[in-house]
Amino acid sequence: MTKQFPKVFIIVLNWNKLQNILECLKSVFLQDYPNYEVVVVDNASTDGSCDVIEREYPTVCLIKNSTNLGYAGGNNVGIRYAMSKNPDYIWLLNNDLTVERKCLREIIGAAEKSDSIGLVSPIVYHYDRPNQSQFAGSYMNWEDLSLVYLDWDSEVGEKYEIPSDLCLWGTALLIKRKLIEKIGYLKDEYFAYWEDIEYSLRSIKAGFENVVCKSGKVFHRNEFEEGNGFKKEKYFYYFMQRNRIILANEYFEKVIPRLKFKIRYFAELSDYVRRYGNGNIDAVMDGAWHGIKGITGPMRSEDKMPSYIKKLLVLMSRLHPVFFADLITFRFEKISRKIGV
């Protein structure tokens, strides 16, 4: 390391998850790394989190936001505070995880190997299945702006080759100070979801490397896993759809790739209707509509997708829309596989 123990500010974002954050903070204060400070940014919780944190963790710097600023805005409040204290690194942590004792030491060691490294993530394991990885990095499929997730068991071994466009989750994201100074903060307009992917891409664009540290481990509760019976909140569906389009509008600079993306996107949207016709379809469609219109920030209930477009998507869902999208965008290999040619 260039310094024996670089200074780290650990930022934990909280929103109405009292028991989760208490367990998270307990694991944070068991770290075997000596040079860190902890900042909790509370996004206007109503469950008494702040009172308990102040009582049980008096050394924590607690920042109380008057409104819910989302993942991006809430973390940015903490990042700005930390940057005023001249840190070497900032470590963003979700409140619904626990941290292995040596994790911070390991990811700092990984980050210090090269000045060109800007972002580092540990391996994220399932909280209730601690031997099974949940996230070990991803990379972008630029054809349709989807993420391809790397599998720890089959890909993140000794011969693991880091993709040049490695994207990291914000779940336990270590950020080097010099990266923040060069590219700035998370984008508030995303509010929640995809902002970490955009930040990863911005890091790469600025000439930095993103790295997964195989020896660092965190254990993450993921209430939004599909195995949980799709018990996701409406805001999850809304932001996941809207922010993917916002990202596409920014990164597809040429007209043809952007058009092909939108054709496939709406095909996938109608296919979603066909497969998961549940009570969150309106949130999905409204999120997509707001993405098309460039509406950013918190989830909004006004300016909904017009009913005739919703009806068209439902109709398309009965006509195998992905097949037609493949045809229109000249993906003949996929068509051949589907019809068995």
Describe this structure in words.
By secondary structure, the protein is of the alpha/beta class. The protein folds into two domains: 8-222, Spore Coat Polysaccharide Biosynthesis Protein SpsA, Chain A, CATH 3.90.550.10; 232-339, no CATH class. The protein has helices spanning 18-28, 49-56, 70-83, 103-111, 152-155, 177-183, 195-205, 234-251, 255-275, 281-293, 307-317, 321-328, 332-339, and strands spanning 8-14, 36-42, 61-64, 89-94, 97-99, 117-126, 133-135, 138-141, 146-149, 166-167, 172-176, 209-220. Strands 1, 2, 3, 4, 5, 6, 7, 11 and 12 form a nine-stranded mixed beta sheet that branches. The radius of gyration is 21 Å and the shape is globular. It starts with 7 loop residues before the first strand and ends with a helix. The relative contact order is 0.11. Mean pLDDT is 87; it is low at 155-160 and 226-230.
Level-1 CATH class name of the largest domain: Alpha Beta
CATH architectural arrangement of the largest domain: Alpha-Beta Complex
Helix content class = 40-55%
Poorly predicted sequence stretches spanning 5 or more consecutive residues: 155-160, 226-230
How far apart the termini lie comes to 57 Å
Q: What's the name of the CATH homologous superfamily of the largest domain? A: Spore Coat Polysaccharide Biosynthesis Protein SpsA, Chain A
Query: How large is the count of helical segments?
Result: 13
Biggest beta sheet summary: 9 strands, mixed
Order of helices and strands: EHEHEHEEHEEEEHEEHHEHHHHHH
Which fold name fills CATH's third level, the topology of the largest domain? Spore Coat Polysaccharide Biosynthesis Protein SpsA, Chain A
Give the overall shape: globular
Question: What is the tally of beta strands?
Answer: 12
- Secondary-structure-based class equals alpha/beta
Integer tally of domains:
2
* Mean pLDDT value: 87
Strand content: 15-25%
Radius of gyration from the alpha-carbon trace, in angstroms: 21 Å
